[in-house]
């Protein structure tokens, strides 16, 4: 283990045992390096590494603070990793979505309030009969976010949000090239929302799995097209 890794582990231990709490300020560099028995150079490298993964926040002229450590912040590094995926790897993202989103839909069918569940249907109603593609994509992102949030699991929500946003370009391409993509998406979203509103977790999960699998199946064949666009990242 390198000296920097050792320093990271020691700072992590301070957070885990409560000596450093979310939002608290780290001791002065000289004091902390002495307390941990590490050099100031190793401490600086550790702090730099922890700031990259959003565990600490370095504020110039003020000090270094532990972040809130909320999953939405810590999961931002997932988005950084996902942004480097190439076209074929977008399929891997959909495979993960296919595993996670049914679980979120099942939990939402149990845990969402009546108002929140009804809000999913109202969100779909707001699109009208013939939404354009941009409206559909924005609505799609919000729809999946609300279900993930309704799962009551902030880690699951952060994972789904990170994956959903970074598969947006693939969904846009599908909407442009597949004739019935918009109507199919609306039908499947309404089926998921209806199952959640009717408190049918198994049905909601099944529809969510079929919905993601349908896009994944289309993408698997579409990527074989030589004219397939670059799907890396988001727009």
Topology diagram in text:
Elements: H1 3-16, H2 29-36, H3 40-52, E1 56-59, E2 63-66, H4 71-74, H5 76-82, H6 87-111, H7 114-125, H8 133-150, H9 154-165, H10 168-177, H11 181-197, H12 201-222
Helix pairs in contact: 1-3, 6-8, 6-9, 6-11, 6-12, 7-8, 7-11, 8-9, 8-10, 11-12
Polypeptide structure, described:
This protein is mainly alpha-helical. It folds into 2 domains: 3-69, Winged helix-like DNA-binding domain superfamily/Winged helix DNA-binding domain (Arc Repressor Mutant, subunit A, Orthogonal Bundle), CATH 1.10.10; 74-222, Up-down Bundle (Four Helix Bundle (Hemerythrin (Met), subunit A)), CATH 1.20.120. It has helices at 3-16, 29-36, 40-52, 71-74, 76-82, 87-111, 114-125, 133-150, 154-165, 168-177, 181-197, 201-222; strands spanning 56-59, 63-66. It has a two-stranded antiparallel sheet with strand order 1-2. A hairpin with a 3-residue loop joins strand 1 and strand 2. The chain is elongated. 27% of the residues are buried.
């Amino acid at each position: 283990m390198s000296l920097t890794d050792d320093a990271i582990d020691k700072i992590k231990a301070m957070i885990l045992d409560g000596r450093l709490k979310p939002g608290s300020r780290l001791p002065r560099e000289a004091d902390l390096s002495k307390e941990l028995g590490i050099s100031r150079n190793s401490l600086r490298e550790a702090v730099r590494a922890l700031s990259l993964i959003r565990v600490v926040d370095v504020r110039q002229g003020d000090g270094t603070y532990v972040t809130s450590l909320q999953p939405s912040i810590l999961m931002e590094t997932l988005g950084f990793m996902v942004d480097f995926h190439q076209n074929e790897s977008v399929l891997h993202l959909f495979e993960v979505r296919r595993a996670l989103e049914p679980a979120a839909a099942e939990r939402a069918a149990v845990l969402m309030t009546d108002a929140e569940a009804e809000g999913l249907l109202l969100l779909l109603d707001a699109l009208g009969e013939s939404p354009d593609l941009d409206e559909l994509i924005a609505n799609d992102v919000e729809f999946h976010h609300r279900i993930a949030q309704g799962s009551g699991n902030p880690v699951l929500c952060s994972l789904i949000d990170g994956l959903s946003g970074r598969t947006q370009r693939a969904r846009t391409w599908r909407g442009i090239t597949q004739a019935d993509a918009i109507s199919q998406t609306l039908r499947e979203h309404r089926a998921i929302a209806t199952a959640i509103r009717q408190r049918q977790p198994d049905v909601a999960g099944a529809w969510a799995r079929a919905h993601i699998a349908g896009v994944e199946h289309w993408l698997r064949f579409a990527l074989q097209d030589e004219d397939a666009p670059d799907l890396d990242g988001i727009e």
